[in-house]
Every structure is written in structure tokens, then in C-alpha cells.
Write a structure and sequence with these properties.
Layout (H helix, E strand, L loop, with lengths): L2 H11 L2 E5 L5 H12 L3 E7 L2 H10 L8 E3 L7 H12 L6 H8 L2 H10 L5 E4 L5 H12 L9 E7 L10 E5 L9 H19 L4 E5 L10 H16 L4 E6 L1 H5 L1 H7 L11 E3 L3 H14 L3 E8 L5 E3 L6 H14 L23
Parallel strand pairs: 1-2, 1-4, 2-3, 4-11, 6-9, 7-8, 7-9
Antiparallel strand pairs: 5-6, 5-10
Helix pairs in contact: 1-13, 2-13, 4-5, 6-7, 8-9
Amino acid sequence: MSFLTRMKSRARRDPKKLVLPEGTDIRMIKAAKQILDQDYASSVVLLGDPEEILRRAATEGCSLEGVSLELPGANGRLAEYTSELHRLRKHKGLSVAEARACIVEPLNWGAMMVRTAAVDAMVAGADCPTAQVLRSALAIIKTRTHTRLASSYFVMHLPDSTWGMEGYMLFSDCAMNPDPDAEQLAEIAVSTADTFQSLFKAEPVAALLSFSTRGSASHPMVDKVVLATQIAKQKRPDLRIDGELQLDAALVPSVADKKAPHSPLRGRANVLIFPDLNSGNIGYKLVQRLAGAEAYGPFIQGLARPVSDLSRGCTVEDVVNTAVVTLVQAQQPFCETPKAAAPAVSVERSAS
């Protein structure tokens, strides 16, 4: 079963509520109807001027029957959302008047809908830069309890099913955090292991990668991975996680027997944690292009409730598929009431 087939089936079993803030974009309009008609979501909200949305839909011959249209601020939630945004950001000097002006921006309004559980998930980025999408999510939805870092992951599906779990692996972080320190790298590892378990209902086997295995090289970059592994194991002793490991020691049992004979991974990793964005971005593209792997993502993890970012060159199919995975994320028990404290996070992302 393909990854998307698996995700679509799960989305249908427990459909959640979705908001698409860029509601006047024709790709979002078409995707909204498909998502609703295919029962991937119980409801879909398009944000924007309803008259403009309907006009654009009519031009394309697209029915929006069943899809909710909402102009940010034009309902009874304006006072509530303004008050909540002011509460969240007043320590940054945001006034009530500024909060009122900010909250009616579609990305902020959509994020507040997610925060207050008016909807369960948000997908955006077709018409907005990644940094803008992440700023809204991080300022309003914030990160999970005991997590200070949002990060990204790719689902990689290799044609050779002997790798990972039947050919499936998660790669992280390949799109957001340029140079995580040891604490951040540990958080990325734990978050990605949890994501693997939630997506595939299987045990994650996570390797923190390096150019060194078990002290075969000495360098500050190696030290970071060693410390990150220690922190991750202390935080989550229940996880099968190990490092520092070279790629072959993480993936090839015969090499692991020689280089890391006492590793609990035994050369069977299904989650690869890259030490920085350079290696992560290069790594996933190498596997995609040279090994013929299917790459799905990047998806965001670590937020209290799920938000996904799109490429501005996305297609309608991309929007639908990203929404499906995001809606499945919304089914997970770690989706929680967002906390009030402002997280310390990076919002940079590589070119896709």
C-alpha cells in the first residue's frame, strides 16, 4: 500500500476540520471541494472575501457546495480572537489595537481557528512565503508541551523494500533548522521518532548521523551529535535511538556489526536524523534522484496542533495530498491545547 493510499484511508476513518487561509487562490478552491467530496475532512473553511471566492470558483466551473466561506473578522469571534492574540503577544509590546489589525490577516485568523479548536488543522503556503506561514503558527499555535522546537520531516519511500520499514523512512530535519545545537538536535530526533510511530504504527529506529561512528573521528561537529544522542536517550529511554553513526553503520547490518556492534539499532534504522540542514537537504534529494525514492513533504512537526506549509509552485493535487497528511496528524493524541509561552524556534527553511 502506498503512503498516500494509507493516509487517505486513515483520514476517512476519522475526518477532521480543515482551514485553508488562502481562500481566493484557485488551487485552494479546487482542493477544498475535492477534500470534502472525498471525505478526507469533515469540514473545510476557505478564508477570504466570499464574493471573490465564489466568483473565481464560477469562472473555473467549480462547485463549492458544502465548503464554508469566511471573511476574517466578519463574525462574532473578532473580539475573542483579538483578546487572545493580545494575551499571547503583549509581552512583545503588541497593543490591543495592533492585535485587532493583525488577527484579521488570513494566516493569523486561520492559526487562531486552529488554536481555539474551531478547526483541527491548517494548510497554507500556496501564496505566502514559508517564513510567514511559520511565524503565524509559532506565534499563535506554538509548540507542544516539553518541546521548544518546530522541525520538518520528509517521508521517503524507496523502491527497495529492504530499507527502513518496507521501504519507508523518515528524514529530518531537511527543511527548517539550519544548524541545530545538541539540545535542538535531540528534540528533532525525539519528535521524528514519535512522528514515525504515529504515521506507521510501528517502532521507530532512529539514527543520529555523523561522519564518525563511535569516536572514529574527533571534531566539534561529532561532539554535537554525541551530546544530542545522550540528551535524546535521557529524555526518552523508551525509544530505540543511537548515535553518532555513519550512514552505513545506521543502515547496513553487516557494517553495523563491525563499526557499532553494541548499537541497539543493529543497522536497521528507519528514521535518519541529519546533523544540519546542509546534509539533510542534500541527503533527501540524493535518495530521491539517484535511488528513485518518492519524497513526501516537508511536513512540520512539534506544533501543538498541525499546520503544513506548501510550495508556492504547488498543484491542486499537492494541496490535497498535503491536507490529507495534515488531517491524519490531527488525529494523533499528541495534538493538545496550545500553551501560552512563546517558543524559541528557528523559522528558516531551505529552497525546496
